[in-house]
Design a protein that fits this description.
The chain has helices spanning about 45-50, 115-125; strands at about 10, 15, 20, 30-35, 40-45, 60-70, 75, 80-85, 100-110, 135-140, 140-145, 150-155, 160-165, 180, 190-200, 210, 215-225. By secondary structure, it is mainly beta. The chain has one domain (about 25-225). The chain is globular and about 50 Å long. The chain starts with 9 loop residues before the first strand and ends with a strand.
Length: about 220
């Protein structure tokens, strides 16, 4: 198990970017988090403004729970993933910016029925308005890894979701004003933006399928609630 003291950092244009959001809830569940969106999040204002209203309505959020319980159920070693679609760009307000949102939730196939129910409730507790219209809950084989030092992440959810992330480098800077322009869609502890090498959603229920290879649209993070 990775030490809690290990934080996420990204070397970009010679600068180490380190972000932290303090937890507001008593720690009970901790682990790793991956996110990808259909808009750039590590970018400059001019690039972000050109995408507003045109893209960024979709996202995948994935939690790998290393340790902890939710609603009294032990979720250690289990994973849960939510895919989201709305009618507007998920920007500075994150999920609160979404309109006509709907989502699908994937729960770890290895979990017991009680654990699967707790995983659904856990995901709903972290995603606010995105969970108000859950159109499908499906169990799936979920594989997820995150190298917190090298900042490389991978996620597969059956045949529906495929995500590969890496840290950004000098060649990923275009305007030299890049920042973590939009915050993560859920509360996390340490996080770093990066590049979506492979980002695909091919699932049912949302009415959309998408692929965003090579976009600066990923977050790699740890969480402790």
């Amino acid at each position: 198990m990775l030490k809690r003291s290990v934080c996420l950092a990204m070397l970009t244009a010679g600068l180490v970017i380190l972000n932290r959001e303090s937890a507001t809830l008593a720690a009970g569940v901790s682990g790793q988090y991956l996110e990808t969106r259909t808009c750039q999040i590590y970018t400059g204002p001019c690039f972000a403004n050109s995408e507003t209203g045109l893209t960024g309505e979709d996202a995948v959020m994935a939690w790998s729970i290393l340790d902890g319980t939710h609603d009294g159920i032990d979720l250690s070693g289990l994973k849960v993933v939510m895919a989201v679609h709305g009618d507007t760009t998920l920007g500075h307000g994150g999920l609160n910016d979404g309109q006509n949102m709907k989502s699908v939730i994937y729960v770890d196939r290895t979990a017991s029925p009680d654990q699967q129910r707790a995983l659904v409730q856990f995901a709903k507790s972290r995603t606010g308005p995105a969970c108000e219209s859950v159109v499908r809950i499906s169990e799936a084989t979920i594989e997820m890894t995150l190298d917190e030092i090298g900042l490389k992440g991978e996620l597969t959810v059956g045949d529906d979701v495929r995500l590969v992330t890496r840290k950004a480098g000098r060649g990923d800077c275009i305007c030299s004003n890049e920042t973590a322009f939009y915050p993560p869609l859920t509360q996390v502890e340490y996080f770093a933006p990066g590049v979506t090498v492979v980002g695909e959603f091919r699932g049912r229920g949302l009415g959309v399928r998408w692929s965003t290879p090579g976009e600066r649209s990923a977050y790699m993070a740890t969480f402790s609630y």
